[in-house]
């Protein structure tokens, strides 16, 4: 049957019905989008609140803060006079991403078989010389900053009392605490 064969009232009812269905679908779409928009705004507000940090989230880096640690070395790996203590002030090896703090050491030399992670280092006081397995060396003084690569092997010589701020970047070799 063609539209022309329908009575005019029937055509109006059919068009009216189609219009009602389209408007109902439109209302449903608008309601769904409004709900999604409200949920997104609520999620954004909650996320901003979770990301907001306060003065309590600032972590001091220094001695007496965090966990102290004194590394041990195999027999003959350090010279007389070598001493060190490390204060891990933030992060942890367990989280697998990073940790850091402050490190203090005294004159002497330590043999390093392999640095367990990339480490960003800033010498606050003192001086150090690193000599690799090939015999090449680099000297760093107070104020120097550098990235010590994971796997570096050689000697670490402290020329005087030295203070270092560091961040160790994971992943970490599992054989070193």
From TrEMBL:
Protein name: Cupin domain-containing protein
Residue stretches making up the (S)-ureidoglycine aminohydrolase cupin domain: 95-160
Pfam families found in the cross-reference section: Cupin_3
Origin: domain of life: Bacteria
InterPro entries membership: RmlC-like_jellyroll, RmlC_Cupin_sf, UGlyAH_Cupin_dom
SUPFAM superfamilies documented for this protein: RmlC-like cupins
